[in-house]
Amino acid sequence: QTGLTALDYGFVNTAATKSDITYIDGDAGILRYRGYPIEQLAKNSSYLEVAWLLIHGELPTADQLGEFDEKIRRHTLLHEDLKHFFSALPHTAHPMAVISSALSALSTYYENAGDPNDPEQVELTTIRLLAKLPVIAGYAHKKALGQAFLYPDNSLSFVDNFLRLNFGNMAEPYEIDPVLSTALEQLLILHADHEQNASTSTVRLVGSTGANLYASVSAGINALSGPLHGGANEAVLEMLGRIRDSGEGVQRFVDRVKNKEDGVKLMGFGHRVYKNYDPRAKIVKESADQVLAQLGISDPLLDLAKELEQIALEDDYFKERRLYPNVDFYTGVIYKAMGFPTRMFTVLFAIGRLPGWIAHWREMNEDPQTKIGRPQQLYMGAAERDLPQR
Ligand code: SDX
């Protein structure tokens, strides 16, 4: 009622979480995983190499990477009974709801699953999650299509195995498309970690109670599903489709955003930390042009996205609020060109972000100093008062 905010009381949340994993400079548009610039990793590394780097803090040796890859391939199969779990869900189920609940269900097949106090369990669960989440995601996609689930093919690389689980079928051999593999590998790397974003903070907070790694990651997936967070890549495609179908034109849409008409936002724009161009968005934008050209696809939604970006970047409303494209603005156009349905876009974000979630959960459990525990609160409610006489 006072109209004052917490900041007026000088309340600054000093309980920042300490971490060694990822560094972001929001003003300079810098992102580094364990000190390595995202631009270098996105162009020269593999997803599993980045996963190892995030989790263990150093780049793997060739032997370490080979063993890591081999272990993951050997753990891709799901317990056969888990298929009954999928058959209980409607084909209209959102894939994010499918994978978050399937992960919780997965933990019931393992004794002492992901126990933070059992180093062997932590290693095994790290491998199991990296190996099985892509399979669960492929099942969620096939479930929505009403198609038969495929078993993983351990002769394929991590990314090719995932592409086959989504686009292969039981009737014919799946032909690997190197364009899709390279593009998806890079997108997974770009999403692998982003310090204390909402879903990672969720994983750390849930894990700080002693909850196991499956439960913590399942909670992180649910946090990611929100349209203001990972769900934005799905929301961007829906926004571009509405602009195209309405015929209202880009400028009219931008004017509606500026006038805050019915709460409409420019999805894929803005960021809690980046008050400059998201370095990941720059890489994705370049990749979108290349992938569509290599696939021989011209998508009017990409042209629409570029027109929207151009108008917004030149408009004072967005400049004053330091709103720039974030990682979600262009990714959907590439995912669509790859053949993924819009509702799978955030699932792809989750697979990318999984190594970061695991790394943060392990860091938090290894160093109690970095536990969030219980966020602080400043009480702004009613002072003490008595019930009316009755
Ligand atoms: C991700 O944290 C992470 O690292 C997340 C992520 C990761 O890798 O994990 O990077 C992934 O979640 C990226 C963000 C994806 N979300 C979207 O694209 C949804 C659209 N963006 C917004 O909802 C918003 O920009 C946020 C929530 C992302 C960030 O909000 P901010 O920077 O805290 O801005 P704010 O909510 O305090 O708003 C400041 C002003 C407001 O206007 P005024 O009230 O001052 O007039 O900017 C406006 C807002 O209305 N604004 C927008 C806008 N974002 C902020 N106006 C129109 N369109 C937008 N997208």
Q: Layout of helices and strands, plus pairs?
A:
Blueprint: E1 22-25, E2 30-33, E3 36-37, H1 38-44, H2 47-56, H3 62-74, H4 82-87, H5 95-107, H6 119-145, H7 158-167, H8 178-190, H9 198-207, H10 213-224, H11 232-246, H12 250-258, H13 279-295, H14 300-313, H15 316-320, H16 328-338, H17 345-366
Antiparallel strand pairs: 1-2, 2-3
Helix pairs in contact: 1-8, 2-17, 3-6, 5-6, 5-10, 6-7, 6-17, 8-13, 8-16, 8-17, 9-10, 9-17, 10-17, 11-16, 13-16
The protein binds s-citryldethia Coenzyme A (SDX).
S-citryldethia Coenzyme A binds at residues 194, 197, 228-230, 232, 257, 265-273, 321, 323, 326-328.
Word description of this protein:
This protein has 390 residues and is an all-alpha fold. It has 17 helices and three strands. The protein has a three-stranded antiparallel β-sheet with strand order 1-2-3. Strand 1 (22-25) and strand 2 form a beta hairpin. Helix 6 (119-145) packs parallel to helix 7 (158-167) and helix 10 (213-224) crosses helix 17. Bound molecules: s-citryldethia Coenzyme A (SDX). The site of s-citryldethia Coenzyme A has 21 residues, from loops. The active site is at residues 271, 328.
The share of residues in extended strands comes to under 5%
Q: End-to-end span in angstroms?
A: 27 Å
Strand order in the sheet with the most strands: 1-2-3
Radius of gyration: 22 Å
Unreliable runs:
none
| H/E series | EEEHHHHHHHHHHHHHHHHH
What is the number of helices? Answer: 17
Summarize the main sheet.
3 strands, antiparallel
Envelope shape: globular
User: What would the average pLDDT be, to the nearest integer?
Assistant: 93
Q: Give a list of the ligands.
A: s-citryldethia Coenzyme A
User: How many DSSP E strands?
Assistant: 3
Structural class: mainly alpha
Q: Percentage of helical residues?
A: 40-55%
